[in-house]
């Protein structure tokens, strides 16, 4: 049993900028929900933040200051901590960046494994993540706990959200929309998606690519060049927030995430929360939950696999999955479930 004599929870995270990916948004959402249920919880992206001796630290991410600072507070003031690796122990990085992995293995021997060994728990978002983490660095020893991750209920101004999105992108009216929502990192597989959509989509089908646009990003320029042969069938929106984002998720016929590595996929949970089915590769760690709930379709993360996803989407094989999507969100991916699991790990009483 894990027992802490604490008055509040303090989250360490490298960045709370949502453009840096789903971790920032997940931490902010988790913090907000913990406060909603009566747990005193704070978030900081400042390594010099003054930490109370009556706090418990939840450090998000590895290889940066949060895990190191959590360990330092533990050694100096006996402040307990737990760690969320958030996919940073996934073996995909070992294969994709071999030199960087070698450097990390050395750092693991010197420091990072010590941070993990002394954590009261190493918290994973899925069973798949915990399984994959065991194959990446050695020696590997920790107290594994599956806490999950999730999102809150979507805002309920449905009509306004859809109207806002379609007024901004009127060409999408009466079109069948496949939505990609995320960063344009090489691990996301968007090049495979563009190639597949160019060959497998039909007349009234449109691919919406939504995510932060960095004009200096060479990979993004490569993707835009790929998409030039489909000027009427691919729409680039830039990053979507607020009603625009929720309108996109609600107006989309389905969400697609063709990633080569995806620890969780907050956008998957968001899509399911508005009953939008999802098309994923088996490298998105939520794929088992999606299959078990029959709320989406899964394929391998290669060109053949993405081709099959587009073909099945065009054939409307997901047509009867909308209600299952909502049920999957409520039973498995709601932030309330994660908050309760974390409180259980920390032995915190919920007022």
Describe this structure in words.
The protein has two domains: 8-151 and 335-345, Glycogen Phosphorylase B (Rossmann fold, 3-Layer(aba) Sandwich), CATH 3.40.50; 158-333, Glycogen Phosphorylase B (Rossmann fold). The radius of gyration is 21 Å and the shape is globular. The strands form three sheets. A six-stranded parallel sheet has the order 9-8-7-10-11-12, with helices on both faces. Strands 2-1-3-4 form a four-stranded parallel sheet, with helices on both faces. It contains 14 helices and twelve strands. It has helices at 22-36, 65-77, 92-96, 98-117, 127-133, 158-168, 190-200, 218-227, 242-251, 266-273, 287-293, 303-314, 322-333, 335-345, and strands at residues 8-13, 41-44, 55-60, 81-84, 122-124, 144-146, 176-181, 205-210, 234-238, 254-257, 278-281, 296-299. The protein starts with 7 loop residues before the first strand and ends in a 6-residue tail after the last helix. 46% of the residues are buried. It is α/β, with parallel strands linked by helices. The longest helix is centred in the N-terminal third of the chain and has 20 residues, at 98-117. 43% of the residues lie in helices and 16% in strands.
């Amino acid at each position: 049993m894990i027992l802490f004599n604490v008055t509040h929870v303090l989250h360490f995270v490298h960045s709370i900028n949502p453009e840096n990916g789903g971790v920032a948004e997940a931490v902010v959402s988790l913090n907000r929900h913990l406060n909603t249920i009566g747990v005193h919880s704070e978030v900081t992206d400042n390594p010099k933040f003054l930490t109370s001796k009556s706090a418990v630290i939840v450090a998000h991410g590895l290889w940066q200051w949060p895990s190191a600072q959590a360990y330092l507070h533990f050694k100096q003031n006996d402040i307990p901590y737990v760690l969320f690796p958030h996919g940073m122990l996934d073996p995909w990085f070992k294969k994709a960046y071999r030199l960087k992995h070698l450097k990390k293995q050395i750092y693991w021997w010197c420091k990072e494994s010590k941070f993990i060994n002394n954590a009261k728990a190493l918290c994973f978002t899925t069973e798949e993540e915990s399984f994959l983490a065991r194959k990446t660095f050695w020696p590997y020893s920790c107290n594994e706990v599956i806490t999950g991750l999730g999102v809150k209920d979507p805002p309920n101004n449905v009509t306004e959200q859809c109207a806002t999105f379609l007024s901004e992108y009127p060409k999408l009216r009466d079109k069948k929309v496949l939505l990609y929502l995320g960063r344009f990192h090489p691990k996301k597989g968007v090049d495979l998606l563009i190639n597949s959509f160019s060959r497998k989509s039909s007349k009234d089908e449109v691919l919406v690519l939504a995510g932060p646009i960095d004009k200096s990003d060479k990979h993004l320029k490569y993707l835009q060049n790929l998409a030039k042969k489909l000027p009427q069938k691919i729409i680039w929106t830039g990053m979507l927030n607020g009603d625009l984002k929720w309108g996109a998720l609600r107006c989309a016929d389905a969400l697609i995430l063709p990633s080569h590595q995806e620890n969780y996929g907050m956008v998957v949970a968001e899509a399911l929360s508005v009953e939008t089915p999802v098309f994923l590769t088996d490298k998105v760690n939520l794929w088992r939950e999606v299959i078990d709930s029959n709320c989406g379709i899964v394929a391998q993360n290669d060109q053949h696999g993405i081709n099959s996803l587009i073909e099945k989407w065009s054939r409307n094989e997901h047509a009867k999955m909308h209600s299952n999507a909502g049920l999957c969100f409520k039973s498995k991916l709601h932030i309330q479930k994660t908050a309760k699991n974390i409180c259980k790990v920390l032995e915190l009483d919920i007022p």
